[in-house]
Amino acid sequence: MAATALLDRLPVDRADARSPGRWGMVLLITTEASFFAYLLFSYFYLASMARGAWPPTGVPALQLALPNTVILIVSSGTMWWGEVGIRNGNQGRLRLGLLVTLVLGLTFLTIQGVEYSRKTFTPASSAYGSLFFTITGFHGAHVFAGLLMNVVIQVRAWLGHFTARRHLAVSNIALYWHFVDVVWIVVFASLYLTPRLG
User: Fold this and answer.
1) What pLDDT score does 3 carry?
2) What confidence tens digit (pLDDT) does each residue in 60-78 have?
3) Count of structural domains, the chain
4) Contact (Cβ atoms closer than 8 angstroms) between residue 135 and residue 112
5) Residue 2's pLDDT band (boundaries 50, 70, 90)?
6) How much is the pLDDT for 22?
7) Is there a domain that residue 24 lies in?
8) Is 73 domain-assigned?
C-alpha cells in the first residue's frame, strides 16, 4: 500500500519544466554539449600543435557556410514562433512554424552535402580533414535527429494533440533545436572564422 502511495506521488504526468521528459532533454543536451566541447578542444589542440599552415588545405570558403548559418539561425526563430503560438493556443501557428523549420533544416543539410562534394580533402587526408568532417558530420547528424523529432511532433500537431496547457513535447523539441543551432554557431566560428584570425 505504501509503495502504491509513493508511485502516485511521482511526477510522471507533469506538463511543466519539472517533468521527467524535460529533465531527460536537459541531460541529453548536457551530454551532447560535452561531446562537442571535446571535439572542438581536439581541433584547437591540433591547430596549436600544427607545424605548418592550419588548416593545411587553406582557409575554408564562406560562400555556402555563411548563408547556411543564416538559414539555421532563422530556423530557430521559426521554431520559437511556432512554440509561442501553441503557448497561446494557436495550433495553426504551431503547425506552420514546425513546417517552415523542417524545410529550413532540410535546406541546411542539402547545402552541407553540396559543400562536402566540393571539398578537395577527405576525412582520410589529414588530421584536419578528419576533424572537419567529424565535427560538421556529427552536427549534421544532430540536425537530422532534430528533423525526425520535428516530423513526429508535427504529426501530433496536425492531430490536435497540443493545447495552450499541454505542449511540453513541443517545448522539449524546441529546446533541442535551439541547442543544435547554438552548437552550429560555435562550430562555424571555430572552423570557418578562427582560421581567418591568424
Assistant:
1) 58
2) 999 999 999 999 999 999 9
3) 1
4) no
5) low
6) 86
7) no
8) yes
- pLDDT > 70 in the chain, percent: 90
Query: Which has the higher per-residue pLDDT, 83 or 23?
Result: 83
The reply to whether 48 falls in a domain is no
Task: Look up cell 578528419; give the residue.
Answer: 130
Structural domain including 123 reads 64-198
Of the CA atoms within 13 Å of residue 74, those in its CB half-sphere come to: 14
CATH number reported for the structural domain that contains residue 198 in this entry = 1.20.120.80
- For residue 31 the three cell numbers come to 551530454
Alpha-carbon distance 83 to 29, whole Å? 19
Q: Which helix (H) or strand (E) holds 139?
A: helix 127-158
Longest Cα separation, the chain: 71
CB 11 within 8 A of CB 18: yes
